Amino acid sequence: MVLHSRESRSSPIFNPGFMQVKPGFFFKSDRITLSCPKYLKTTSMKKLLLAILFVIILPVFLSAQIDTTVVVYSWKLDGFYANRTRVDVDTTLANFQCYNLAYKKFTGIATLGNYGLPVQSIVYSERPQYQEFVLINSFFPFMKHYENTAYINTRKPFTRISYFKGGSSQDKEEILDAFHTQNLTKKLNIGLHYTTVGSLGQYQFQKVKNNSFNFFSSYSGTVYNNYLSVNYNKIIADENGGVQNDSLVTDTTYAFTRDIPTLFSGTDNASRHNPDVFNEIRNINFLTVQEIAFRGNRQSSDSVSKPGKLRIFYPKLVYIISLDRTSRLFTDRDPTVGFNNGLYPDLNVSDSVTLDSLLYWKLFNSARIQFQGRRNNHYFVDYSYEMMNYSMDVSNGQATADTLEQIWFITDKIQLPGLEYKSRLFNSYVSSGFTRVFANLLELNLYGRYYLSGHRQRDFLLTGDAKLILGKPEHPMSFKVKIENELRTPDFLYSHYASNNFIWTKNFNKTSLNHLSTNLTVSSKKFDFQADYYLLRNVIYLDNNAVPKQYQTALSLLVLSASKRFDFWKITSVSKLVYQKSENENVLDLPEIALYNSTYLTHLINFRATGGKLLTMLGFDLFYNSKYFADAYMPALTSFYRQNSKQLGNYPYFDVFLNIQLKRLRFFLKLEHVNSGWINKNYFSVLHYPRNERDLKFGLSWAFYD
């Protein structure tokens, strides 16, 4: 069953909200003790008991008596916090086996291996265009954030408990996800979303611990509306640097993958897990949008006269405030290992230990006047002010006097034996937006932004799209055209960065983006086609040394994608094919072909004796991309960078699955990478980082909404 959402003009794409961390967290530069934080040792039974306790206790504290039929509406705010975009609540059996959030978002991925480690899409049009470079971007698919929060309005409490597990005791992967929402009144809704991930990995020192939490609330009144999203994320992730040589995977047979030597090591036994290299990330972010509407519904003093009509557009005052705060600590107990193997270019402060910390926060305020009409129709103009703070600190783990040569960074003198750099920036800009639906056939959206002062002074963004909807309401056909033009000052960390392994000061020109996109959707044929053309000027990328570099000429990029669903008898096949071509593969290389296919047989089993019904799906998933020079990965920056030493790809990944649904309980059993070792062992999507071998996984999800 799909529990449909409120607004119906936009595509139903659901991305669960992503969450974040404790505001008082800061890495101290004098930290000397190098002990890896111990992971919580929780068994599967404890997590199941926690889930049951969550279901029993939560309604006691959040009681609401709503005696109407069960309907759950869900929507998200767009990137400008002006439109509501409908989404679907995940209660269907189709694609239930695809629990990995990265696979839910992307057609294909480049990954370090197990769940929760850094990942990026191999399709350029799926990569965020406005994402700042803050060294944790590759973890975003597994984090909760206000930009991805879905708001709910439900007539009865809705709870969903999900549990996923795979692997053996040596490489197990466990995920517990608990979601609850309910209306306290007809207008006020609150919700909680908690996820804990523990993933050991099939190769040594791949352990990931990820805890994330989201609290959201919405109030929809006649005069006052409010949206609130508070998110917390804490991630502790090992870094093994990849295998020492790819031939150890492709040409050598090991009894256990954990025996394959990796670049970085540490201590890993039954009583102690202490990696030499790891990242610790904490993030807290919140957003609140408050709206006060001045609706006109004036009536004539003559009681005989008809009541006055509502104004077509009524004014609304909107105030938006958000905070995004991230702290990251990178620890390397022996940086000479990476330096001697050519991974790190320098050891700037210490050759005995690396303790790099980065604290970043961004505070955003916006005051808006908006003229609101029916549906999403509106006009608005606003003024926004944002502050950003960057604090970089490197400690050498010693309290000795400075014996090294002084280093100058930008205009500030860096004091050794440690290194510290701080900067605070601001931006102020005005923006305006327009959305209008004409006769339920044509939807027009326009948005413009101009930076008046600050770090991004004279930057601008212009974007607009037009969507034409034809055909019958139950089987519409839509055609959409979108145009974007942006002039952007490079992100601060691209220009200024200080750490034990990297120090750079760059004077980059502004980058520009021109993007033309067209989309054709024919629902009756279950067909979708999209074409994207990008023209990038002065694009910035991380070169073969993982250092920012600017390509000073224009770079064009074409992305074509088509998806189609076939239904024959009880067989369903969903395919998506992507073709993309970059003009300069040394700057931006992408696989020309990326393919995803899911084919399954659906059968409903009826039990005549009990009247019960069991819905089953048996099928397979296929992921494939052509060969290309896939990116390498830099642990010290938690970022992907260019390499031209080895092509990766041209390897299919098959998963076989069985999905079962009994009333509101869903269950799947999946054998991932079933073809592991059948053809060859070139299953790398990132240089020196092999994908997981064959693995058996299962998951279940139970929804309660009555």
How many separate structural domains? 1
Query: CATH fold name, please?
Result: Maltoporin, Chain A
Q: Mind telling me the CATH class?
A: Mainly Beta
What is the molecular shape?
globular
Strand-pairing-aware structural class = mainly beta
Query: Radius of gyration, rounded?
Result: 26 Å
User: What's the CATH H-level homologous superfamily?
Assistant: TonB-dependent receptor, beta-barrel domain
- Main sheet attributes: strand count, strand direction, barrel closure: 22 strands, antiparallel, barrel
Number of helical segments? 5
CATH architectural designation: Beta Barrel
Distance between the termini: 14 Å
Overall average pLDDT: 86
Properties at a glance:
single chain; mainly beta; disordered N terminus; Maltoporin, Chain A; 22-stranded antiparallel barrel; 5 helices
Describe what is shown at a glance.
It is built from five helices and 37 strands. The strands form eight sheets. The protein has a 22-stranded antiparallel β-barrel. Strands 2-1-5 form a three-stranded antiparallel β-sheet, with no helix packed on it.
Write up what this structure looks like.
It is a single chain. 5% of the residues lie in helices and 51% in strands. The two termini are 14 Å apart. With 706 residues, the protein is mainly beta. Strand 6 (158-166) and strand 7 form a beta hairpin. 37% of the residues are buried. The protein has a single domain (44-704), classed as Maltoporin, Chain A (Beta Barrel). The protein is globular. It has a 22-stranded antiparallel beta barrel. A three-stranded antiparallel sheet has the order 2-1-5, with no helix packed on it. The protein has a two-stranded antiparallel ribbon with strand order 3-4. The longest helix has 18 residues, at 44-61.
